Structures are given as structure tokens and as C-alpha cells.
Amino acid sequence: MTKTAPAVAARGLTKAYGPVRAVDGVAFTVERGAAIAVLGPNGAGKSTIIHLILGLLTPDRGTVTVLGRTPERAMRAGLLGAMPQEGDLVARLSVRELIGFVRRTYPAPMPLDEVLRIAGLTGVAGRRANRLSGGQAQRVRFALALAGDPDLVVLDEPTAALDVESRRELWTAIRAYVSRGKSVIFSTHYLQEADENADRVLVIAGGRVVADDSAEEIKRLAVGRTVSVDIGNGLAEAVTALPGVIAAQRRGDRVHLRSRDADATVLALARLGAVRNLEVTSGGLEEAFLALTHPEKGVAG
Ligand SMILES: Nc1ncnc2c1ncn2[C@@H]1O[C@H](COP(=O)(O)OP(=O)(O)OP(=O)(O)O)[C@@H](O)[C@H]1O
User: Fold this and answer.
1) Are strands 152-155 and 183-188 parallel, antiparallel or unpaired?
2) Ligand 1 neighbourhood includes 46 CB (under 6 angstroms)
3) Is 114 helix (H, G, I), strand (E, B) or coil?
4) Beta strands in the chain, from DSSP E residues, in sequence order
5) Is residue 40 lining ligand 1, measured as CB closer than 6 Å?
6) pLDDT tens, residue by residue, 221-263
7) pTM tops 0.95
């Protein structure tokens, strides 16, 4: 069964820190061989979702499986790779020694030369970790995630704090890994990064999935418009099914509908008698993203 299980299956995932519901009923599936972006602004719940997938946090409710196993089992078997967040690499060891050392902790590690090749580190394999550029050091961290020859690698904002060139090199490495039929989940604040590197994009806001689609479809959100209107409780469900609506976000009494056909959506709202403070706004991908994740900020247009 586990041979055909998806890379990740999350169902009803919920996690609170005291009164803060960081993740609130999140469900998604990651097929094998897919690259998935978890996209959202600060505080959306991305890190919490990543930590739940890695088994570093236990959900209050719901389940998450990795390759048909608990995250702990997948991690122990070397099937699930994680990139260490910041933190210094062991300065006295060479890149080759450091990766070699970590490889030996796994039951069926990836061949060392292959790790170096995928991570783009062959040319600096003999160099000490403290003689590396920021971008090279980050690729060493990625190499450490590959050491156990995992089927899934989970990366929490892998390119944060990297310059443009280092970002490009890290993505080249990550794509080399995915091209072997492996899966990647990464979190990011950057729409462009999700667009360029992900097959599917989960847009997270307020601990919920507000959009889950191909990067192509998420981009189409950008050409749509946002229809915002105040509604009563009775209509909350109905408005999400109106013509043109591709995503909906509710904040208190106000609902923000991303629509690929705003005219049809407005007409349908009018038929329902829901026109209080009706507003239609438009904008590009960035605005679409803000509308989905920060509706209170509004959008230009
Ligand atoms: N250890 C914690 N204790 C209390 N609240 C927390 C803790 N960790 C996260 N939170 C809160 O949970 C919510 C989700 O945080 P999380 O770090 O998952 O978001 P994020 O999308 O990864 O944000 P960022 O992009 O800034 O890293 C936020 O409101 C955050 O303040």
C-alpha cells in the first residue's frame, strides 16, 4: 500500500498555539514526483504546516501521512528529507566530509558523488564549510536533506536571505532532484518562485488553504478580479458557488470573491440581494495574492 501512497496526505490538520489557530482544518494531497509550493504572507501558517509534515509538531486534530507512513517513520527510514534552518555548518569539516558523515546515519543513503552533483557542490567538495559563500552553504544544507536518498524533501523558505544568483543555483539543484521523480514541498513568500518552480501551489491565509491549484491556474487568478460584499451568515456558503468564483475568503461579515468573470458574479449577487458595500477591484498576480491573503488591505484598480 505504501508503494502507491501519495507523498503527503493531510486531512483536517489543525494546530493551535494557545489561543492562536495557526493551522485550521487544512487538507491537501501531494502526488509523487510533484513540486508543491506553500505560498502565503507572514504568519499564514506555512511553517506550522511544514513542521506538521516533518513530524516536528503533533496536530491537535487531523492526520498527516508521508508516503503512507507517519512522518516519524518516514524520517527514520530516510524517505523524508529536511533542510536544517540557519545554524552554522561544522566549520572544520570539508563539504565532502560533512555530507559523508550525515550519509552514514541513514540505512540506504544516496551515493556521495550524486549528492554533490545534484546540489552543484562537486567543485567545492574539498572546501571547508566556513570557506563557502552563503549560496554554497545553503546548497550544503540542501545536500544534507538529500543524504538519506529521500523520496520527499520538505523545505521551509529555502531561498530566504539568498541573493538572486544563489537563489537560481539552489533552484537548479532542487529541480535536478525533482527530475529524478522525487517530490518537493517548499514554503515561500514569493509568487514568482512558486510560479517558476511548483506544479501546484497551496495558497495559505489565516491557517487555511484559500487556493490549491496548478501554478498555471493560480496565475489565472491574477487576471481575474475581486468582488467584495457584506453578507449575512445565511449566504456564506452560497456565494462561493456563484458563476466565475474561483476562490473565496471570508472576514467577519465581508466576503472577498476572486472571480474570473466579475460581471457574472455581480449579477448573481444582485439576484441574491447581496449588494451591500459591493466593490469590484482588479490587479495583477501580486494584487490577486493580496486579495486572497490580505483582503483588508484592498486592491488597486
Ligand atoms: N511557537 C509559537 N507560539 C505561539 N504562536 C505561534 C508559534 N509559532 C507560530 N505562532 C503563530 O502561529 C501563526 C502561524 O505561524 P507560522 O510560523 O506557521 O506562519 P508562517 O506562514 O510560516 O509565517 P512566516 O512566513 O512569517 O514564517 C502566526 O500567527 C504565529 O504568530
Assistant:
1) parallel
2) yes
3) helix
4) 8-17, 20-30, 35-39, 61-66, 80-82, 152-155, 183-188, 200-205, 208-214, 225-230, 245-251, 254-259, 279-282
5) yes
6) 666 788 999 987 778 788 888 999 988 888 888 998 888 889 9
7) no
- What does the block give as the cell for 257? 470573491
Rounded to the nearest angstrom, the distance between the alpha carbon of 189 and the centre of ligand 1 is: 14
Whether 249 contacts 289, CB under 8 Å: no
Distance from the CA of 221 to the center of ligand 1, in angstroms?
26
Report the C-alpha gap between 270 and 11 in whole angstroms: 36
Residue 152: all three cell numbers together: 520527499
One-letter amino acid of 125:
A
Lowest mean pLDDT among 42-46, 174-178, 216-220: 216-220
Q: What string of H, E and C letters represents the secondary structure of 276-299?
A: CCCEEEECCHHHHHHHHHCHHHCC
Ligand 1 atom closest to 47 (CA): 22
